């Protein structure tokens, strides 16, 4: 690489970091948080003995898992306006990613909840706990142990998938790299920087994941 | 003596399988009732209906001041009051593995009964002392032996201050050498005047502790009375067969 490429990289390290911190990370965090809440309710609906509720949840999961994320993103941003619903790029991305996480994480949470023995529900019931309290204090804390590793994978995928938001004009990390590289066609250098940034985020998340998992293992025999 | 528990016409089916056909009995306050019967005769189911873990199809259960007719729809508040009357000890303790021994015991008093935490902790420590586990308050359940876990389960149920204690084969999942500690705790409770219904296969224990023995067979209480009578001179052939099989299994 010649000096001008290095200069180009140098000039863009900061703007790309800004895009990461102001767009990529918030987009990931907000979508993941909303997606998890959605997933919890979808999982509970899916487990529910109320047939229409579980059928609805099943259909939702099926649609989300059976269609490309890019298509989901395009529907929210490019198709909804045809129905008169115009949403800005960033909130569009949040909606699409949250719905997507909601579908994938629901199956993870459902499996984790079902892995908790029936006796735990019954013990909670005999000490007088209601459904919501039992979930919150007995079931979910234990289910977390099973759910954290796969949910971490969902989160790490999401970090990388936020790059798809570049296609709906969100000026996140990849989009900034694209725009910076376009005039001189220096794609290799700037996409390389973007790759390194994504990689660093994922490394950091993996290390957080390890710490959370270790914490959740503290009450289990080794 | 006044009856703390009266059961009349208890019925319960699972689908086509009628497990409890017509169960009736009384438990005077401060007495111990041992429930015996073959595997699958419905002892666990009967005990679970007393705590409304399984909802009886019909029958009237009075515990203390609460009376519920299960043939009628039961509202949630009544059901909650009914459930609060009895403490349940499971065959497989069902402790909360993610909480320490102390946290297991105070969970109900603090979260459900909304009692002040400091007070609940004081009470819990007394209870843990009583079941011989004062030292173990800050351990997690996995760090305890089966017998110790079972005793925590007993303390957890006692902490809610029920009027009646229900035990479902509290020692049958334990190694033989751990059985004694658990039975001793239950004996102490009997001596303290607790009213208890205990499903058990420990015939000798029933002989020593029970004031009354119920033999359940075919969905009814086939025979009941003091242990000397039911266990010593049973009047039904079914009871005799059952006892023989238990006492002399080979
Ligand atoms: N939830 C359930 N659904 C369907 N059948 C059940 C259910 N619970 C119990 N049963 C059936 O009811 C019958 C009585 O079961 P129960 O567990 O009350 O017997 P038990 O007297 O406690 O036996 P054991 O001595 O083996 O513990 C059994 O045939 C059992 O298979
Ligand atoms: Mg049983």
TrEMBL record, chain B:
The keyword Membrane applies. Its main location: membrane. One of its GO terms (molecular function) is ATP binding. Keywords: ATP-binding, Cell membrane, Membrane, Nucleotide-binding, Transport. It is a peripheral membrane protein. The keyword Transport applies. Residues 5-243 form the ABC transporter domain. InterPro entries: AAA+_ATPase, ABC_ATPase_HisP-typ, ABC_transporter-like_ATP-bd, ABC_transporter-like_CS, MetN_ABC_transporter-like, P-loop_NTPase. It comes from the Bacteria. It is found in: Cell membrane. SMART domains: AAA (SM00382). PANTHER family: AMINO ACID IMPORT ATP-BINDING PROTEIN (PTHR43166), L-CYSTINE IMPORT ATP-BINDING PROTEIN TCYN (PTHR43166:SF35). This is Amino acid ABC transporter ATP-binding protein.
